[in-house]
Amino acid sequence: MSTLSIDHPLQPGDRVPNIVLDAISHEGKVALDDFRGRTPLLIGLFRGLHCPFCRRHVAAMADLNAALREKGVESLAVVNTPVERARLYFRYHPIPDLLAASDPARASHRAFGLPIIEFTQNETDWPRKVGMDEVMTMRVDMPDELPEPMDPPTAGDLLSKKDGYEITEADRQVSLAGHMQLVGHFLLDREGVVRWSFTEVEQEGRNICRALNPEELMSAACEVAH
To answer: What predicted TM-score, i.e. pTM, was given to this entire model?
Structure first.
């Protein structure tokens, strides 16, 4: 497995390293080199399934999978949750035909340059630190699930209560006290070169917990598929 770590997210034109992870959706491993030279790939790098936003974003990725595949683009969702815990979750919350992998060590996040951000009281140095005073001014807008735009902690608590997700020891092992793994999506061409991305690092935090824009993704997928 690659141990490469960079201090900023990979950008269009950057070639991704090979990463080998435990597959969730089947036994064995999944590697980025499995796709190289064969097909474009959308890779979604998420926090663990203890994150209510990530649970929804994985489900949204599964919903887009068929449309992307029609354009010749494969999809891979990577979660920080240990593999057995993730398999149990997806047994009850299926993601039909979406390839998923487990990365509790966050090797893929480091390789793609997605940092871990520290929560402070009032000191912000994005994307290394963010003050809670700043976090509380952020708004997550999910009209179908939230009564109004809310700050991420309040929104997360409400969604977790709604889901009834039970935090286990496996979840606690990958939780980061006082910190949070930033996440994102990267669209790769057949040669494993980034052609489009959407990450929480961009927009000085305004992308925190936000879903990607499906229309923007599908437009990029059309370009990559040709």
So the answer is: 0.94
Residues, the chain, total? 226
Residue 77, classified by CB atoms within 10 Å of its CB into exposed (0-12), middle (13-18) or buried (19+), is: buried
For the stretch 115-126, pLDDT in tens is 999 999 999 999
43-59: pLDDT as tens digits? 999 999 999 999 999 99
Domains of the chain: 20-115+168-225 (3.40.30.10)
Cα 193 from chain centre: 18
Residue 208: CB atoms within 10 A of its CB come to: 21
CB 99 within 8 A of CB 44: no
Q: Which residues contact 199 (CB under 8 A, 6 or more apart)?
A: 9, 114, 182, 183, 184, 185, 207
Distances (CA, A) of 7 to 4, 58, 112, 114: 10, 25, 9, 8
Which one-letter amino acid corresponds to residue 21? L
